[in-house]
Amino acid sequence: MKLDPAQRHILTLLQKDSTLSTQALADKVGMSPTPCWRRVREMEEAGVIRGYVALVDRHKVGLGTCVWVRVKLKQHSADVLDRFERVVKACEQVVECYELLGETDCLLKLYLPNLEALSVFMHEFLLKIPEIDVTHSAVALREIKNETALPL
């Protein structure tokens, strides 16, 4: 879907505050509510807007440790990757997972309560996945930037 300037403006505003009423959104974009609502609905139906969520402060819910885990798989086949993906998708500690080019096959992002939880995660979950050959972990010392809004 090709976005026009008004749709981009609407998306920029909704990424900052998805609780804006149609009237408030329309006022900020400079259009009447009905056409504004229609544009939002079009973007929802086209899948541009996938949904609306609450952004939770991970520190306030006890998830102060951010860990990146690089994973190298034993083999490179569709079956191996499919099995690995199914297991990782079912794991709630993994908040992001990317398949990569290069020496690392996949990159996982985890939010955990502490380093002890990382040890449990590694021993009770990750290292039990038979498709994994090698893992390398990096613990974030502090978060410098973490944005959810896309640059439109």
Q: Describe it for me?
A:
One of its GO terms (molecular function) is sequence-specific DNA binding. It comes from Thauera aminoaromatica S2. The structure is a single chain. The protein has helices at 5-16, 22-29, 33-45, 78-89, 115-124, and strands spanning 65-73, 94-99, 106-112, 132-139. The protein is α+β, with helices and mostly antiparallel strands. The chain has 2 domains: 5-45, Winged helix-like DNA-binding domain superfamily/Winged helix DNA-binding domain (Arc Repressor Mutant, subunit A); 58-139, Alpha-Beta Plaits (2-Layer Sandwich). Strands 2-3-1-4 form a 4-stranded antiparallel sheet. α1 packs across α2 (22-29) and α2 crosses α3. The mean pLDDT is 96.
